[in-house]
Each structure stands twice: as structure tokens, then as C-alpha cells.
Specification:
37% of the residues lie in helices and 21% in strands. By secondary structure, the chain is α+β, with helices and mostly antiparallel strands. It has three domains: 54 residues, Arc Repressor Mutant, subunit A, CATH 1.10.10; 84 residues, no CATH class; 107 residues. The strands form two sheets. It has a four-stranded antiparallel β-sheet with strand order 1-2-3-6, covered by helices on one side. Strands 5-4-7-8 form a four-stranded antiparallel β-sheet, with no helix packed on it. Strand 2 and strand 3 form a beta hairpin. Helix 6 packs across helix 7. It is globular and about 55 Å long. It is found in: Cell membrane; Membrane.
Length: 250
């Protein structure tokens, strides 16, 4: 395996997706390649954070929704040991269970009765499925055989890494040590389409370290930028970029 090929294996190695022979070869390569070592550390840290994403915080309006619907929805009869099929014990099932447990805990904490309410259960299932799909797509980009990475320093000493896969036509941005945006603001990511900025999604304003699957295909974009925007984002940039990064080409 050539050195050029070894440089493309950082994402797959961080996700433990390499066959044993390629893993050994790549680990020998890491001893002499500081750039790949840095990328592996950043990608491994991101993979660990994604592993913790199975626990979801309950929405702020959950208490009001539960208490309001208690008065309109009849409580279901006991299931007598019946188990609902969840399609296996995979990640989706765990996320669904956590979300539903949050509903029950919130109702009990405010003096309510544990309620198995269909609409809340459906909302939790949809949110869990959406989170699973996004994490799966993010992992596919990081582990793609043609994934290419580019890293650089950002404003305030933060560090950013962008991973692009042409076969997936998607990109992932990994941030480390970013300062929180001003109150009422959010970091918004943009594709750079030959000077025209196309929205690629919002970053979590509470996370100094974040992994973001850019919203939409890469297509002909040559890079990305980050601006500070009002909460909820903007249709086009309204401030100077706090970061600009070119997409890797080789």
C-alpha cells in the first residue's frame, strides 16, 4: 500500500473499520506521520462524542405538553408483560427507550402519572430515527475509502477539520475548542460555491467540540465558511466569516 493511500485511512482507522493487515500497516505509518496522527486523535475524539449521543435531553416544553395532554388522553391498560417490538437491540431501540423514559420521568417529577401517550411516543420515535440517520451518514463520510481531510486553526485558538468524500458527495466539519457564540446567536456553516455561499447547517451553540454533517451535497463547492448568525440561522451570511477553509483536493 502506497503512502498516498495510507493518508486516506484516518477516518476508517478512527472507527476501527480497517482489516487487520491494513490496520498494522497504518499504525506503522502513524509512527512517522504527525499529520495523520493529529487527524486520528481528532476523529477518535469525535467518534467518542457520537457514542455518547444515545442519551438525549428532554425538550424544554415537555412538562407542559405532558400535563396538557394528560387531561385529554385516556391512559392505556397495563400490557401484562407484553413487549413492544423495536427491531432488535440496536442504537435506534436504545434512543427510543431513552426518549420515552424521559417523558415518564418528567411526568412523575411534576406530580403527574406515568403516561404512555401515542403522540409523544411517535415524536420520540421520529427524533430518534432522525438522529440515527444523521449519525450513520456522518460515520459513512468519516470511514469512506476516498475521504480526504484538511485541518487548520480557527479564530480564538480553536481548531477545525473538514472531511470530504466525493463518493458520498458529503462533508463533515469537526470543531475543537470553539468559543460559544454571543447570546442569541449561532454559528452557521456555508458551502463556498465559487464565491456564492450556500447554507450547510447550524452548529450546536452549547458545544465547544462538535461534529457536523454538512447539510446538502458538496457538488462543486470548493470550501466552507462559518459566520455568526441570529438563532435559527439566516438565508445568507449577515456577518464576516469567523473561519474559511478550503476543501481537500488530494
Amino acid at each position: 500500500m502506497s503512502t498516498a493511500e495510507l493518508h486516506t485511512l484516518t477516518g476508517a482507522y478512527a472507527l476501527h473499520a480497517l482489516p487487520e493487515s491494513e490496520q498494522r500497516a497504518f499504525e506503522r505509518h502513524l509512527e512517522d506521520c504527525e499529520a495523520c496522527s493529529q487527524e486520528v486523535r481528532e476523529l477518535s475524539a469525535t467518534a467518542a462524542r457520537l457514542g455518547l449521543a444515545v442519551a438525549e435531553s428532554s425538550p424544554r416544553d415537555l412538562r407542559e405538553r405532558v400535563l396538557r395532554e394528560i387531561t385529554t388522553v385516556r391512559q392505556e391498560a397495563p400490557a401484562h408483560g407484553r413487549r413492544e417490538r423495536t427491531g432488535g437491540r440496536g442504537r435506534t431501540g436504545r434512543w427510543y427507550a431513552y426518549a420515552l423514559a424521559a417523558c415518564v420521568a418528567a411526568a412523575a417529577a411534576f406530580g403527574g402519572v406515568a403516561v404512555w401517550q401515542n403522540q409523544l411516543a411517535q415524536d420520540a420515535r421520529q427524533e430518534a430515527n432522525q438522529a440515527q440517520r444523521q449519525n450513520e451518514q456522518l460515520a459513512q463520510v468519516l470511514s469512506a475509502s476516498d475521504a480526504k481531510t484538511s485541518s487548520g486553526e480557527l479564530t480564538g485558538g480553536a481548531r477545525g477539520t473538514v472531511v470530504v468524500s466525493q463518493s458520498q458527495n458529503r462533508a463533515v466539519f469537526l470543531a475543537s475548542g470553539m468559543a460559544p457564540p454571543p447570546s442569541g446567536k449561532v454559528y452557521q456553516i456555508w458551502f463556498n460555491d465559487e464565491g456564492t455561499m450556500r447554507s450547510a447547517g447550524l452548529m450546536d451553540p452549547k458545544a465547544s467540540d462538535d461534529a457536523v454533517l454538512l447539510d446538502g451535497p458538496v457538488d462543486q463547492a470548493s470550501g466552507m465558511g462559518i459566520t455568526v448568525e441570529p438563532a435559527g440561522g439566516s438565508a445568507e451570511p449577515t456577518s464576516d466569516p469567523v473561519a474559511l477553509m478550503d476543501f481537500p483536493t488530494a
